[in-house]
Amino acid sequence: MAKPISRIGSRRNGRIGSRKSAPRRIPKGVIHVQASFNNTIVTVTDVRGRVVSWSSAGTCGFRGTRRGTPFAAQTAAGNAIRTVVDQGMQRAEVMIKGPGLGRDAALRAIRRSGILLSFVRDVTPMPHNGCRPPKKRRV
């Protein structure tokens, strides 16, 4: 009878890679900026999509209506990028999503960080005349 093949990464074997291993060198990555009217979230991933660092205006200490401001977005972008620059990121692609005030400020902060941007893409979802609007109110 053949030996059963052990499943790689099962719970008994423990975790495959420890969460806090030696900081890996990431030469290229993707910076996702999600700018809503209430908050701005900046996520930095490697090219495969694994999150390396993230920050938002809320985690930077801004509360209430101040989270939606351009200065809060600039601070959030600076915090998220500072850690990946230490890990050796030199090139990045930027994906900007949402209509918020922090779009331009976050992009300005990314440009100022010294990372070379290969392209900047707007990935805001646009409906192709999607959902049916609610019925008009009868008086």
UniProtKB/TrEMBL annotation:
Residues 1-23 are annotated as: Disordered. SUPFAM superfamilies: Translational machinery components (SSF53137). The keyword Isomerase does not apply. The lineage of its organism: Eukaryota, Viridiplantae, Streptophyta, Embryophyta, Tracheophyta. The keyword Flavoprotein does not apply. Keywords: Chloroplast, Plastid, Ribonucleoprotein, Ribosomal protein, RNA-binding, rRNA-binding. Belongs to the universal ribosomal protein uS11 family. One of its GO terms (cellular component) is ribonucleoprotein complex. It comes from the Eukaryota. The gene is rps11. It comes from Erythropalum scandens (Sainat). GO terms for molecular function: rRNA binding; structural constituent of ribosome. Pfam families: Ribosomal_S11 (PF00411). Part of the 30S ribosomal subunit. Residues 9-23 have a biased composition (Basic residues). It is found in: Plastid, Chloroplast. GO terms for biological process: translation. This is Small ribosomal subunit protein uS11c.
